[in-house]
Structure formats: C-alpha cells, structure tokens
Write a structure and sequence with these properties.
Helix content: 40-55%
Oligomer: single chain
Structural class: alpha+beta
Largest sheet: 3 strands, antiparallel
Bound molecules: zinc ion
Shape: flat
Length: about 260
C-alpha cells in the first residue's frame, strides 16, 4: 500500500545497519542505557584517549586502579581493576567464555553472537553488555566528576538491579529451560517452575527411646553466591529439642 511513510522510506538515504543494533535499541532496556551503548559502539564517549587522538595532549589517569594507568576505552570497559571482575561475574552466571585480556568490543561481539530471541537467557545475553557498559561508564563519571569511587560490590548490585528491571520487560518465551532457571536463580529473580508439582507423602520412622534425630537442609543462590542452612533436633517422640539457621555464607561449591 502506498503511504507517505512508504514513499519516504523509498526516497530516504538509509544508513548502515549493524547486527548489534537490535540488542542495543531493545525496548527491554531504557533509552539512557541504549544511548550510552550506542555512543560506546561508535567510539563517541569522551575518554582521554579519544581527546588525544584528535591532537589535544592531556595527562591521563584512570579512576579504577591503584597504580597509574592511562585511560582508554579497553581499560575502562574490559581490562581495568573492577571492570574485569564485573565481566567475570556475568560470564560465570551466563556461561560465556571470559575472554580475559581481549578488547571490549570483541567481548561484546561474542555475547551478541550467542544471544537469541527464543530463550530467556539468550535475550539476557544480548542485553547485558549494554547494562554493563552503561553502569561502568556511570561509575567512571561519578568518580571523575564527584570524586566518589564506588566499590565493585556496589556496582555489581546495581547491575543486578537493572538486569531484574530488564528481565520484567523481556520478550515472552515459550518455556524456560533449565539454563534459564539457573540464570534466574543466580540473579535472584522469581523463577516460575516449568515442572508440575507432584504431591508426595512423607513418613517418619519412629526412633528408639533415648535417641535423637537431626534433620538439616541448605542451599546456595549461585556458585559462588549467598547460601543458607538450617537444622532441627527432635527426640524419639518427635518433640522439638533445638534448632539452628545460618545465612549469608558465600562459598564455592565443588561438584563431581
Ligand atoms: Zn584503571
């Protein structure tokens, strides 16, 4: 059908298309995040190395390392002290190779290549680089303009918060895979189970007189992640004797 829009679309000069554009301009992330990522992808962010490239000599020092390091885009977005830690954590949760020491664009391209519309975790793979870069840029600006150096844990909590925000707006998928559920748990997001619950009856075996029974249970949200355990001690007639609960333990659990 011929319309004003179709005529304009036919007449206008179209710009280059980028394979990553659908993830950068995805409706699941706010425009401020998309805009920062778009600028980063086009090397438009005002970093010291860019200023130097246009012929202005500046003394450059990053705000993320204790030792003096010049500020350039790869250091700020991939190799800097806490920056590398943020990539490491995200790679661990989503099962992506860490690509340590690689340029930041190479990392982002790897994430975007593995992103997919059909899976929940696949969509997160496409969106997470934008959230990460936006937050790292925000941290740098705050350190430079306000003299406030946010700790890595604070930046990570903020990234998780924005991931939760994006997860609510992510395109609906047919069903969650085990991988999706693991990712949801790692980011502490609500996880609707895909399996039907089957009611089972538990039978308690009576103890001999004078004996006591200890029942314990524990779990971990992520690996490493926040963990908790609890237990209860009862006598042979089933009466409560004592109990305990411990939380906020972070450990790496090794499995066979
Ligand atoms: Zn640094």
């Amino acid at each position: 059908m011929f319309t004003t829009w179709s005529a304009w679309n036919c007449k206008r000069i179209k710009g280059q298309t980028f394979p990553w554009a659908k993830w950068v301009w995805n409706p699941a992330v706010p425009r401020k995040i998309s805009m920062t990522m778009w600028k980063a992808m086009h090397e438009c962010l005002p970093l010291d190395d860019r200023v130097r490239r246009i012929g202005i000599l500046v003394v450059s020092s990053c705000d993320c390392c204790l030792v003096w390091v010049g500020e350039d885009v790869d250091h700020i977005f991939a190799k800097g002290g806490y920056t590398a830690e943020m990539w490491r954590r995200c790679s661990l949760v989503l099962g992506i190779p860490r690509l340590e020491g690689k340029p930041w664009k190479e990392r982002v391209a790897c994430w975007h290549r593995k992103a997919s519309d059909s899976l929940f975790s696949g969509q997160l793979l496409g969106l997470l680089p934008s959230i990460l870069i936006w937050r790292l840029w925000g941290r740098l600006c705050k350190a430079r303009m306000e003299g406030v150096a946010e700790p890595a844990q604070s930046v990570w909590c903020s990234i998780r918060l924005w991931i939760s925000w994006a997860a609510l707006k992510i395109k609906e998928v047919k069903g969650l895979t085990q991988r999706d559920e693991d990712v949801l748990r790692c980011f502490k997001l609500p996880c609707p189970s895909t399996q039907e619950k089957v009611a089972t009856t538990a039978k308690r075996n009576p103890l001999k007189e004078g004996w006591v029974k200890l029942n314990i249970d524990g779990c971990s949200l992520g690996n490493p992640g926040d963990a908790g355990a609890r237990g209860i001690i009862r006598n042979s007639t089933g009466e409560f004797i004592s109990g305990f609960a411990v939380t906020a333990i972070t450990r790496i659990i090794l499995q066979k």
